[in-house]
């Protein structure tokens, strides 16, 4: 029996690791010493406000796996990252075969904030939390065929705090809602930014 048999129920799981990103507003920021001089950034006094999560990215790397499972027979078909383009699942400009060893590229040009140029209300904390697990899962009931061309993988570059950008992606399936799962949380990073 083939895995993608439309007379059975199936699920498509997108698994890997990635990042939640968002912003934390600041209730208070203390930047000045008693002498009115601006302190070094690591000596700022911060009081965090509300976290607003904005995005959930999946690492576009060899940690990414796409698995089609026939729920009735328990048979699986695994689509390896390096073959996503050859299989027509990923149709973008990148070549996954080039990203097997690392998906880090393009050095990030870091610039320090000139704290004399900003007011207290122009600061926020950039929030990133690493995660591992199931990114999304799509269900295909009897009569509903999984078609690779309907899977949309959209890539972009993300500053994860390292020296180089990383390729990340969003994954959606045309006209189908996904189930989201609780993921295994990882390291949290917060970086001071300005609007």
Structure description:
The protein is an all-beta fold and 195 residues long. It has one domain. Helices cover 0% and strands 50% of the residues. Strands 1, 2, 3, 4, 5, 6, 7, 8 and 9 form a 9-stranded antiparallel beta sheet that branches. The radius of gyration is 21 Å and the shape is elongated.
Tally of separate helices: 0
Report the oligomer.
single chain
The proportion of residues forming helix, as a percent range, comes to under 10%
SS elements, strand count: 9
Q: Keywords, please?
A:
elongated; 195 residues; mainly beta; 50% strand; single chain; 0% helix
Q: In brief, what are we looking at here?
A:
The protein is an all-beta fold and 195 residues long. It is built from no helices and nine strands.
List the helices and strands and how they pair.
Layout lengths: L9 E21 L14 E15 L5 E6 L5 E4 L24 E4 L15 E18 L10 E8 L5 E10 L10 E11 L1
